[in-house]
Amino acid sequence: MKCLAAWFSGALIALCLVAAPALAQQPLKIGFGMSLTGPLAGNGKAALISMQIWQEDVNAKGGILGRKVELVYYDDQTNPSTVPSIYSKLLDVDKVDLVVSGYGTNVIAPAMPIMMQRNMTFMGLFGLNVNSKFGYDRYFQIMPSGPEPAIGWTQGFFDTAMGLSPKPQTIALVGADAEYPALALQGAREQVKRSGLKVVYDKTYPPNTVDFSPILRAIQATNPDLVYVASYPPDSAGMIRTASEVGLKTRMFGGGMVGPQFAALKAQLGPLLNGLVNYESFVPEVADRFPSIEQFLAKYQARAAKEGVDVLGFYLPPFAYAMMEVLEQSIKAVGSLDQAKLADYMHKTEFTTYVGKVRFGANGEWAQPRMLAVQYHGIAGNDLDQWRKPGRVTVLTPAPYKTGSVMTPYQDSRK
Amino acid sequence: MPADFPTALVLNAVVAGLLLGGFYAAVSVGVSISFGMLDVVNIAHPAFVILGSYIAYLVNDRTGFDPIAASIVLSPLFFALGMLIYRIYYLCFEKRGQESLRGLAFFFGILFITEVALVLVFGVDYRMARSAYSDTTWRLGPVDFPMRLVVPFLVSIAMVIGVQLFLTHTFFGRAVLAVAQDALALRLMGVNTFRVKEFAFALSIATAGVAGAFLIVIQPVQPSIGREYIGLVFAVCVLGGMGSIWGTLAGAFVLGLAESFTSTFFGPSWAPAVSFGLLLATLAFKPAGLFGR
Questions:
Q1: Which residues of A touch B122 (CB under 8 A)?
Q2: Is the pLDDT of residue B199 over 50?
Q3: Which of A5, A74, B98, B281 has the most CB atoms within 10 Å of its CB?
Q4: Is the Cβ pair B19, A234 closer than 8 Å?
Q5: How many angstroms separate the CA of residue A379 from the nearest CA in chain B?
Q6: pTM for this structure?
Q7: Any idea what the CATH number is for the domain that residue B130 is in?
Q8: Residue A244's closest chain B neighbor by CA?
C-alpha cells in the first residue's frame, strides 16, 4: 500500500514538474472587438495595426510576466448590437485574461455592462464620455478629452471662438443622429450655456444623408457667427464640400468632425479643408512635444501603406499603441492579472507612452484635456505629402501647444 | 410667401430636391426593372451600386478618366455580370419554383460576398473619385447648382429616359414589358421568357453600375455603405408604382423634394419620417403607387 502511495505521489510531482513550464508558457490573451468592416472600419483597422505592432514589440522583449502576448479579436462590423456577444465569447469561450475596447463610443458603450458584471478592468479607445452614465471605477480611456470629456472635447473650439474680437453672439449646432455626435453636441450645448451664446439652429440629421445643401442653407439663413458640426467621415466630407458649394459665410466652421484627421479624407478633400477649425490628436507642427512618436509612426506607416488604411496615422494609431503600453506597464508593475489591483495601479500612476505622459482621473478619463483644436490652411492640391511636414495646420489650443491664431471669417480663411 | 420661407431658400430647396431625386432615380431604376417587372427581389442591388462605385474609382484613380464616363463605357461588363447572376438564380431557384425565400437568401449572400470582396481588394478606407467638375458650382441668381450633383442628375435623367424608350419602342423592350404583364401567356406563344428576363435583369445591373459612379462623385464610399440605400430604393420603386419607369422617376423626385424641403424648413431628422409618411399615404389612397396600374 505504502509502495502504491509513494508511486502516486511521485507521479503527481512529476506531472506538476512537467505541467508547470507548459502553463507558464500559455499565452497571455487580450481580447477585443474591432470595427474591421462597416463605416468605421478604416479607423478600426488602423488601430488593430498599432495593437499588433505593440504585440510584436512586447513579444520581442520576452512578453509580459514571462508569457507571450496573444491578441484575440473579432469584427464588430461597426455595429453596437454585435458587441455584447463578442465580449461574452471572449470571456467565456476564449477565456481571455484581459479585455480592451474597439474603436469609438458606439461600440464601447454596449460593452460596459458586461465589464461591470465581470468586474473587468476595461481600457477604452476613443470613447466620448462613455463612463458618465455608468460611473465604473475600472474603466479607463485613452483619448485625451479630459475629466469632463464632453466639455473637454468641445473646449478648443469654444475657447478659440470666445477669444475672437468682437465676441461671437450666435451659434448653429448640427450633428448626425448617432451616439458620438449626440454626446459631442451635448458638450457643445453646455459650452454654449457657459459662454452665453445664443443658439440659432440646433438640429440633427440621419446618418445616410446624401445632400447637405438644405441643411447648410437653413443654417446660413440664420446667419450664425459660429457653426459647430459633430459628424462621421462621410457626412464630414459632405458638409465640407457643401460649405464650399453654398459659399457658407460664418466666422468659424467645424468643431467635432470625425474624418479630416485621416489620410483618406485629407487627400480627397485637399484645399476644401482650408479654413476649417477642427480637432486633431497629433500634428507635425507640435512634433517636438511628442519626442518618441516619430519612432512609432515610422513602424506604423510602413505597415499601413501595405494594408491600405490611414497612411499618416497621426490621429488614432499612436493612442491605440499607448493604450496597450498603459496595460503592459500596469501588469508588469502589479505582477499579476488581478483586475482590482490593475485598476488601482492605473488610477494612481502616471504612464510614459508614445503619446507622452498619461494620467487618469477618478472617472478613468485623462486628468487633463489635451485634444488639439486646429485650423487648416495653405493646402494646395490633394498631395498627401504636404501633411507629413509642418506648415498646413495652426494649433489654436491648448495654450502649451499653440502655434498661431485663428483666421476668420471662414469664407476668407478658405482662400 | 411667408417670411419663414424666403424665395431663395425655396428655390434652392426645389433645385436640391430635384438633383437628389435624379440620383435616387438612378439607384432605383434597376430595382424597378428587377423587382417591379421581373418579380426578382434583388436585395443585392445596392451592392452592385457600390461595386460600380469602386470600378469607377479604380479607373479614375489609375487613368484620371472621368468616373461617370468610365462607368458608361464599362456598363457592358455589368450587363454581362447581371446575365451571369440571373442565369445562376434561374437555374438554382426560379426554374425549381424556389425563388421566393431561397432566392431572397441568394441575393443576401451576393450582397455580403460583394462587400467582403470589396474589403479584400480595396480595403476598408473611404474612397472618392475626382472629376473636373467636382468642386465647381454654377450660380444663377440666388440658386446654386453644384456640378457634383448636376452632372449625375443629367446623366441619370438621360439613362432613365433611355431605359423607358428602350422598353416601349423596341421589340425586345416590349417583350420585357410583356413578361412583366403575363409571363405564362408569353411562354404559351413560344417566347423564351428566360432570355427576356435575363436581358432585363442584366439591364438593371448595368444601371446599378452607372449609379455607383454617381455615388462616388457625390460622396465618399466604403464597402458596406450600400446597405443604407436598401430601404430607399424599394421605397422609390413602390411609391412610383411597381414596374413603372416614369413612376420610379416621379417617386424619386417626390422623395428628393420631400427630403430637401423637410431638411430646409423643419429639420433634417424629420426627413425619413416625412418621406416614408408620404409613401404610406400614397399607398393608402393609391395602393398601386403613383404610376401603377
A1: 308
A2: yes
A3: A74
A4: no
A5: 15
A6: 0.87
A7: 1.10.3470
A8: B135
